[in-house]
Amino acid sequence: MTTALKRCLGLWEIVIYGVGLILGAGIYVLIGAAAGIAGNMLWLAFLVAALVASFTALSYAELSALFPAAGAEFVFAREAFSSRAVAWITGFCALVVGFAAASAVAVGFAHYLNQFVPMNTVFAAGGLIIAMSVLNYWGIKESARFNVFATSIEIGGLLLVIAVGGYQIIDGVTPLADLLEAPTAESEEWPFLPVISAGALIFFAYLGFEDIANIAEEARDPYRDLPRAFIYALVISTFIYILVAIVAVSVVPYQELAESEQPLSVIMEVLIGGAAPTLIAIIALFATANTVLITLIVSARMLYGMASDGSMPRTLSRVSSKRYTPYLAVCIVGGISIAFLFFKHLEVLASITDVGIFILFLIVNLSNILLRLRRPELPRPWRTPFNIGNLPVVSVLGAISCVLMLLTINHPVVLFGNKYSSLLVGLTIFALAIPGYFIFGQSKRSRQ
Questions:
Q1: In this predicted structure, what is the pLDDT of residue 441?
Q2: Which of 60, 91, 344, 367 is the S-S candidate for 80 at Cβ 3.0 to 4.6 Å?
Q3: How do strand 412-415 and strand 391-392 relate by DSSP bridges?
Q4: Distance between CA atoms of 317 and 167, rounded to whole angstroms?
Q5: Nearest to 99 by CA among 357, 299, 323
Q6: How far is CA 36 from CA 220, 257, 341, in A?
Q7: Could you tell me if 297 and 268 are in contact, meaning their C-beta atoms sit under 8 angstroms apart?
Q8: What are phi and psi for residue 438, nearest 5 degrees?
């Protein structure tokens, strides 16, 4: 067995990885739920989420060029805080985010699949995770080819929505919605509170740019390509998101979008009718499957990176001598992602993911700040713009925005027939990182 990953990814393959993961999760799965919160201001919620994401993306860009290694967030925290406990908890959060995100998007896949083949949601979602885990094991180059193919299809579907819907709006067939209309009476007093709350949920839709850092050991030129890939993927995805959001609320009332499990199919049925909803549903299957694949890939690389460091059992860092993939990490990640399907409901899984991602992004921004102040002498191939001395202003804004967004996750989730705060559910799950550290992070087996 070997422990080295294969460097075979160029700039645009990495960008497509990021774009494929970002677009697959948000538009096809969460646009309905977000419309129910933000109303016709859905487009603005996407913009708010993009702004918050951009701060952290720039921190990731600097850190990934500085430390181009698998297990990115774990490595960043270890180097910045000089604490194995903080690093391990960071890695744990990243892993749980991956498990929950893969499960959430797999549930979205099952909802679209149900339009063609009625079956149990958990069974269909679990089958997808198994299939994508097999492809994850098969090889990073093969996964990249599927990603390019699926991303092309999903972008084509979104461009179809934009083209048809945009034409009808411009031609006057469909009137442009009042893009500043909010859904609740409470919004009269706090008009942008629904937008911020929806932005916190929609932030799930931007997950993907951070995972670029975790394939650093498979990039041909990580110092040059990784920072650029972060920026390109985020800009491309945001532009598409906003246009689709405007078309969506103009074509279908946001109340109807909120009630649909296949929101884009509903939109295309209104726009074209005929076989269009079926076509969008097929595209959505590729989009969600692609997102699950990439999430599993980067989660396996995180587990591989922690195992290589000795913070997880070393055996998990084994790489197949034929496929050049961390096969044991792939199996563990796939298995636990299936276990997360216990939560069943998309909004519960998305809330868990959002809580974890804001905690994770807070640590990443703080890592960049600490490294700038404590280790300014490090050679940095790329630096964030807007600095005051050694202080990265962008990272400071990223840290503050992550805290604010975390506190706005106030929508309820239903578990066992009872309503709970989504923030409380998420924090409870991520608090398991503390006992987890004492079980795994300090175990004799982990240091062998």
A1: 67
A2: 367
A3: unpaired
A4: 52
A5: 299
A6: 43, 7, 24
A7: no
A8: -75, -25
Cα 410 → chain centroid: 20
The CA-atom distances, in angstroms, between 324 and each of 10, 196, 266, 424 are 17, 43, 42, 40
> Look-up: residue for tokens 């995972």?
211
Q: Read off the pTM.
A: 0.80
Locus of tokens 């538009």: 27
Read off the DSSP letter of residue 319: B
Of the candidates 247, 270, 213, the one whose C-alpha atom is nearest the C-alpha of residue 56 is 213
Secondary structure (3-state) at 311: coil
Coil/strand/helix, residue 298: helix
List strand residue ranges (DSSP E) for 19-78, in order: none
Q: Give the whole-angstrom CA distance, residue 197 versus residue 371.
A: 32
- Amino acid identity of 370? L
Looking at the domain 11-442, which fold is it? Answer: Amino acid/polyamine transporter I (1.20.1740)
Distance of CA 322 to the CA centre of its chain: 30
Token digits for 256?
């109807």
State the pLDDT confidence band at 446, using cuts at 50, 70 and 90: very low
Start-to-end C-alpha separation, the chain:
17
Q: Tell me which H or E stretch contains 309.
A: helix 276-309
pLDDT tens string 42-77: 999 999 989 888 999 899 989 988 988 767 788 899
